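Expect sequence, tokenised fold; for instance:
***
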Amino acid sequence: MNHLEDSVKFLTKYSWIYDFKVTNILSDKILEEIPSDWLRFLKSLTIEDFNEVFLNTENTKNVPEEIANFIESYRMLKTPITKCTLSNHSLSNMHKRGISLKKEHEIVNFANFIEQRCLHSDIKNILDIGSGLGYLGEELTRKGFKVLGVEGSEGHSERAEKRKDGNKSHNFDTVHLKIDDSQECLLKLSSLTSEKSCIVGLHCCGDLTPQLLKMFTEIDQFSSLMLVSCCYHKMSPVKDGFENFPLSSELKSAVEKSDKPGAFNGFMLRLGAQETVKRWLDMGLDEHKKHMNNVGFRAVLEKVAIENDIVLKKKKRKGGMQSDFDNIDAFKDNLAKRYKIDETVVENFSELVLECFQE
């Protein structure tokens, strides 16, 4: 079994599951691309049934042959994952000021992971890439490491430096440096790095992870590399793919030989940044309903906007409050609050959204 080739074949065969923009599911007629056996079967399932069929390894429910083949292929491709024991430690009230619970969880557990590996290899120096305001670096200094922050945002770099005032844990410098593939960046990073250093990064978005992987092989002072990657779909696109994906020559060859090399796009890379299965299983029925409404209402909105030549632009980064997705009336009545729509057409547009939903 060639795991890479089999994975590519699997992703290619079932690309209809992911190869589209979710909110365009109606406007691009995505439902028509779903195999009839699958569509009929999925429409018959409750959330509990879905979880039992696809996520329970001891499922006893009868399923159509094609779905059974999918499940068998998927399970054959799964590889064992070594899970780290999560820490019960939490930051003090002073140290976690301004930090969300999610961020605190990431900082505490990643810092513990770094500490365990670095102590084993007798590494004392840490280069924190994308250090932000320095929260991870502060936790690492409390563990006795010598830290240097590297941050691409000038504003964050300046704010990180200001955190030194009145914060004993923030006893390290933050250098403003945007990581890229240039020789200049490589030389600058090399000059900042002490002997036997560990390079770390929490939320290495897009191209940052492959860039750091390349630098790790070229800078002798780096003894260890520990990164938490994210937002793979934001990697720099080039013709027929991405500049930094795949890095593996074997995977690249498998993709090029596949029936649909174009399926290895931003939509596919988003699969690597999805919520975990545990998160899905922990969701209650109310959460699933809100998620369904969120996607469904926005799909209706996109369809009506395209059919009426209306360009949708959000007024702010997040499209609206969760309460706007409780029902279609609340959603349509709040369109003008969330999107920049000409006042002369907004009322008629809202009614068209309702009509499309009812259809």
The CA atoms of residues 246 and 252 lie 5 Å apart. The first strand starts at residue 125 and ends at 129.
